Amino acid sequence: MKGRYWKQMAVSVAMSAALLGTSSLANAQGRRGRGEERSQQNQAERDQRQQQRAQERQQQQQQSNQANQERQQRWEQQRQQQQQQQAERDQRWQRQRDDQVRQSQERDQRWQQQRQQQQANRDVEQQRQRQLEQQRQQQQQQENWRRQQQSDDWRRQQAQRNNDGDRNQNNNNWNNRNWRQEQELRASRYSDSWQRQQNLAFQRQRILEQQRRLNQLRFQQRYLDQLRRDQLRLQDWRYNDYGPYNYRYQRGGSYYETNQYGAQMLQRALNDGYSEGFYAGQADREDGYRFSPEDAFAYQDASYGYDGYYVDQGDYQYYFREGFRRGYDDGYYSRSQYGRYSNGSYSILGTILDQILGLQLLN
User: Fold this and answer.
1) Is residue 5 in some structural domain?
2) Whose C-alpha in 18, 28, 141, 150 is 20 to 30 A from the C-alpha of 241?
3) What digits encode the pLDDT tens for the residues 260-293?
């Protein structure tokens, strides 16, 4: 009985061990299967993530390329717009320059026609005056002959009484003729310099066009128009005796004398110089050009308003430029240190004028 019992126990133990081994093997195989499945799943997930990253990099590259293309297109469009705007600006400037040249030519033609017409009128007037003068001379000769026939004795007595007075009168007439010839010579020299100033103005115009200083160019053309009107006015000017030298003015530490007409001309030189200088300084400021009053044609010319009588041209130009420099300073810096604006025009302050000119009335 005991032997059977132990045999059964041995069989039971063997069967249990076999069952345990089979179960362990099955469990091990299950675990290996699940590990391989998880490994394959992980590999698939890694492959998917890599594929997603590759797709994302590809999308980013495409977006970057597209952005670069858009920037390149915008830059190209901006460049084309800038070129178009530059071309339009050049065309506008060219049209403005052509218009200014055309207007200047038209003004010159009108001025030339006016000058020719006035010259023709003067010739006619001079011819009529000569005829009238000849008639007066003939009438005077006839009157003299009649008087001579009527009273030779009276004429001799009158000649004796007035002998000394005639000599004094002849001397005065000689001095007056010399003085008038000197004034007319001044006017003639001023008229001769007008052509040289026109050539200088044309050279300055070309320089201003090259520098594209349109505001300064417009100011110069306005100044030239004023000079042309001055020339037309002076062609009809007639000499008059404006009295003795009873005024004294100062220049460079020395004193010079003139009459009332000359004193007014020097005051006008300072005022006109200030006004023209103000406009010239304002034009350079608007053009963005440097401070340079001596560079303006009006400063170099300095003859606007000059009549050629009772004051030397050099003196007139000196005071014109003194006013011009102060006006240019006020115009360039947009202030009123040396002058003021009144009744539509600029003029130098009276205290500054007196300080520069030092005008004194003589007894």
Assistant:
1) no
2) 141
3) 889 999 999 999 999 999 999 999 999 999 999 9
